[in-house]
UniProtKB/TrEMBL annotation:
UniProt organism field: Occultella aeris
UniProt-listed Pfam families: SfLAP
TM region(s), chain numbering: 6-30, 42-62, 74-90, 148-166, 172-193, 214-233
Protein name from the UniProt record: Sap-like sulfolipid-1-addressing protein
Signal sequence extent: none
Length: 235
C-alpha cells in the first residue's frame, strides 16, 4: 500500500501546486464574504478532484491488473500517451519572449517590476458568492485538462493494482487530500487569522501571476517525462 501512496503522490502534488487554482482561491479569500466563499471553493475543488479521479479509476479497473511477473503494455501505452499529451501542453504554454509592459502599466514600488494585470474573469471574483465559488471550484478541478491528465496517471496506478474496494477508496481519499492541499492551507489560515493573512495573500497573488507560465511549463515537462518513463517501464 505504501508503495502505491508513493506512486500517486507526485500526481496529487502536480495538481496541488498548479498556479491558477491557488490564484483564484487567494482572490476569493480577498473578496467580501471571504470565509463562506473560501469554504465553498475548497469544497467544490475537493469534490471535483474526487469525482474525476474516481471515474478514471473505475475505468482503469477494466484494464489488465498490474503484475510483478510480467509487463502491462496496455497501461504502458496509456501512460505514454498521457506523457506526450503533457509535453504538448507544455509546448503550447511556452512563450520564448514576453511582451513589454505598456507605458501605463502599474509598477510595484518595492520591486520596480510591473504588477501583473488580472484577466477580466479573475477580476469578477471580487463580487463572487458562495454558490459561484462552489461552482468555480468544481470547474477548475474537473474541467482542467492538466488535472485530468494527472488524475489519469494516478487512476492507472490505482485501478490496475488489483486492490480491494476499501484500499482503492483510501487511495482515492489520499490523492484528493494531496491535490487539495494548496487550496486548503490558505483557506484554513485565513479562517484562523483573517487579518494577518491578508498582506501575505496579496503578495502570493502577485508572485503567482508573474510566474504562472513558468511554473505551469515546468510542471507539465516534469510530469510528462515521469509518465513516459513509467510507460516505458510497463513494457
Amino acid at each position: 500500500m505504501l508503495d502505491l501512496v508513493g506512486a500517486i503522490l507526485p500526481f496529487g502534488l502536480g495538481v496541488s501546486v498548479s498556479p491558477i487554482p491557488i490564484i483564484v482561491s487567494v482572490l476569493i479569500l480577498l473578496s467580501p464574504r471571504s470565509r463562506a466563499n473560501g469554504i465553498a471553493f475548497l469544497l467544490g475543488w475537493a469534490l471535483g478532484i474526487a469525482a474525476v479521479v474516481t471515474v478514471l479509476t473505475l475505468l482503469a479497473g477494466y484494464l489488465p491488473t498490474d503484475s510483478s511477473d510480467g509487463p502491462n503494455p496496455v497501461a504502458g501505452v496509456l501512460q505514454l500517451a498521457l506523457g506526450v499529451w503533457l509535453l504538448v501542453m507544455a509546448r503550447r504554454k511556452f512563450r520564448p519572449t514576453e511582451s513589454e509592459p505598456g507605458p501605463e502599466a502599474e509598477v510595484d514600488p518595492d520591486t520596480g517590476l510591473p504588477v501583473p494585470q488580472l484577466p477580466g474573469w479573475m477580476s469578477s471574483i471580487a463580487s463572487t458568492t458562495p454558490v459561484r465559488s462552489l461552482r468555480s471550484g468544481l470547474l477548475f478541478a474537473g474541467a482542467n485538462p492538466k488535472n485530468v491528465a494527472f488524475a489519469a496517471g494516478a487512476a492507472l496506478t490505482i485501478g490496475t493494482a488489483g486492490l480491494g474496494t476499501g484500499d482503492v477508496a483510501l487511495l482515492l481519499v489520499i490523492y484528493t487530500v494531496i491535490a487539495s492541499l494548496t487550496v486548503a492551507v490558505p483557506v484554513g489560515l485565513h479562517l484562523l487569522f483573517p487579518v494577518r493573512t491578508e498582506q501575505p495573500l496579496r503578495a502570493l497573488e502577485v508572485w503567482l501571476m508573474r510566474n504562472n507560465t513558468t511554473i505551469a511549463v515546468v510542471l507539465l515537462l516534469v510530469y510528462g517525462v515521469l509518465l513516459i518513463g513509467q510507460g516505458i517501464g510497463s513494457f
